[in-house]
Amino acid sequence: MQSLEAIDSWGAEIAAAGVVRADGIVDAHGPRDVPVRWASVTKLLTGLAALVAVEEGVVELDERLRRLLSHAGERRRQYSNEGIEEAAELVAAGAEMPFAEYFREAVVVPLGLRGSLAGSPASEYVGPLDDLLALGRECLAPTLVTQETLEEATAVQFPGLDGVLPGFGRQEPNDWGLAFELRDHKSPHWTGSTNSPRTFGHFGQSGTFLWVDPELGAACGVLTNKDFGDWAKTAWPALSDSVVREQRA
Fold this sequence. Notes:
By secondary structure, the protein is α+β, with helices and mostly antiparallel strands.
């Protein structure tokens, strides 16, 4: 895909991108096997592990866990690494094992991922592009949880809460699922203007992102080692719009 070649102009020492559909990888550009820190994209894997735990009966998706995973305060959305870490602690307590161990057994091994959780479950997964694309494929056609569970996780939790989307300012509302950030009608946003409102995913401060667009039937993932900044606010949506356009052609 010609659109993916745009990452070469971003000035990152490491840059890899790919597009995947439910039946496999459409295309990739850059190294697929070089481990990169995912930063907050880690939250998607941790959220998936929590959903597996819910289906296994390890924890209950009660109001506390639901609020932690969706960054929901009483009156506004308060994005928090600490909340995701607390959610992971609940899973660890229910499973009676360290979260990193449960994470590996519930997500890493069954998805065939090659990376690992090197620290915080909110920000410290380290893995290659192939892992990110495997996650994108899982979010299009789930195998670890039911479709119904995924649909709940990507629906708005505690509707109507305003808040700040890091790097993109105040959003009214600032909709969130269970660890998944929801595009809806947010503006500005890190995905493309042509991504459907149903698009969900996450981006990371280390210059990484994964979005999944169910209406398009595709997911796009990017790993770099160039920290998020003003450059990304232009480059990421432009790349995303190019990917959407090519996938619709």
